[in-house]
Amino acid sequence: MPAVSLEFFGSGTSQGVPVIGCSCPVCTSVDPRDRRLRASAVVTAGNAKVLIDCGPDFRQQMLRTDHTHLDAVVLTHEHMDHVAGLDDLRPLIFSSNQPMRLWATERVESRLREQFAYAFSAQRYPGAPEFEMLRIEPGHAFNVGDQQWIPILGVHGIWPVLGFRIGPIVYLTDISGMIDSERQKIYGAEILVVNALRKTKHISHFSLDEAIEFARTTGVPNVFFTHISHHLGLHNEEDAQLPSGMHLAYDGLVVNA
Fold this sequence. Notes:
The strands form 2 sheets. A 7-stranded mixed β-sheet has the order 6-5-4-3-2-1-14. A 7-stranded mixed β-sheet has the order 7-8-9-10-11-12-13. It is built from 8 helices and 14 strands. The protein has helices at 58-63, 80-83, 90-96, 106-115, 117-120, 180-183, 208-218, 235-240, and strands at residues 4-10, 40-45, 48-52, 72-74, 100-104, 131-135, 142-144, 147-156, 159-166, 169-171, 191-195, 222-226, 246-248, 254-256. By secondary structure, the protein is an alpha/beta fold. 20% of the residues lie in helices and 28% in strands. 44% of the residues are buried. The termini are close together. The protein has a single domain, classed as Ribonuclease Z/Hydroxyacylglutathione hydrolase-like (Metallo-beta-lactamase, Chain A), CATH 3.60.15.
């Protein structure tokens, strides 16, 4: 099995941190770990470099790293903070001279064909992005390069959302619940990434306490919380209070397994 690494391109919630117009301690913090772009990650496994979700901060996220190409994009769900940056894949499409492969469920693909209709038109205008759509079927693993991806189905309020197990790493975002048969797919992993929006309960995201409890039930030894809002608190204060083996993720953090 090839070594797997995951880089947090963004660890923030749908508004990002700082939030426009907010003067709270988190939004005015000078600690770079408190500056959180919209949640996204790059997984490097074997011969493939894959982006999980492509939100509105994608261009900025790419420019602050040394990444110059992606082999594919895998989408968890269709909310704007996870797909709005797809048009900014154009430079990578142009430089490779081939469509960008997008892995998505039928539901997500249907939404993308509406939202980015100009990219899927039979007569695309010059300069439009070109995508190759590949189908994710919950319950069925798929391969990107030489690495197997196992979809893990969760609920995001009333919406379906996918997480993924890539070898020893599990990435879950925007979940508020999961049935036991899906949770079992996490067992035996070395690293778990899971969303923890804030300290108080939310209709469609785990709170911090809920995320901690969920992580404990999986038995995964190394846990990183993502999709964090400014309501959770300052990184240096909150991270120090987490249980052993658990940490707040931050933009630019790389974990290896």
